[in-house]
Inverse folding.
């Protein structure tokens, strides 16, 4: 009986094919948009500097009304930009997020090229804390948090305020600006500085 040995290249190609077929299960264990679920679970709003994902069970108006950007009235450019935007809740939310980001950049004097961040607004703190626990294997009941690896701010609707958003968005600006990240305490101090001076 003659034994035929398959060339190594065939074995390699078959093994690689099997690996590629199973890759999505490993590469995207949390679904298309990370551990937060599928795009169908969210209302997606695009602003100039952010993609905002709002839980589909939340009224966008409720999120928008929690953010006070009246400090923009002191800046004639920001005031005009705000007045020129549309009046739908989605447009207002996008505008308010952009105003906060522009102000945070100005306070930090950091203007990273092509800056863009994701923001996820959850229906409750428990939902967000479950995500944190799933990712980090420990439970921390923060009001909001930012993950550099996902370039995403996570916040439940009950904690949405301009100050908390400014703090977390500052983390994204800082992390995007520096090629080598400063120590965590320095980044936290800078983010706190933005929060304190947001309404100056």
């Amino acid at each position: 009986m003659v034994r035929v040995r398959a060339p190594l290249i065939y074995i390699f190609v078959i093994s690689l094919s099997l690996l590629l077929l199973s890759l999505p299960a490993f590469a995207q264990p949390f679904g298309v948009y990370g551990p937060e679920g599928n795009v169908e679970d969210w209302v997606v709003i695009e602003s100039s500097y952010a993609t905002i994902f709002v839980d589909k069970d939340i009224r966008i108006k409720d999120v928008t009304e929690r953010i006070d950007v009246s400090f923009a009235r002191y800046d004639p450019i920001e005031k005009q930009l705000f007045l020129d935007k549309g009046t739908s809740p989605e447009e207002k939310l996008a505008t308010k997020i952009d105003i906060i980001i522009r102000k945070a950049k100005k306070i930090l004097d950091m203007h990273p090229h092509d800056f863009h961040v994701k923001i996820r607004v959850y229906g409750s703190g428990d939902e967000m804390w479950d995500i944190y626990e799933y990712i980090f294997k420990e439970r921390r009941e923060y009001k909001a948090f930012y993950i550099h690896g996902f370039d995403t701010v996570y916040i439940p609707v009950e904690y949405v305020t301009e100050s908390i958003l400014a703090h977390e968005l500052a983390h994204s600006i800082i992390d995007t600006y520096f090629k080598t990240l400063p120590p965590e305490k320095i980044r936290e101090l800078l983010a706190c500085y933005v929060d304190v001076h947001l309404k100056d």
About this structure: The chain has one domain: 38-197. The domain at 38-197 is CATH 3.40.30 (Glutaredoxin).
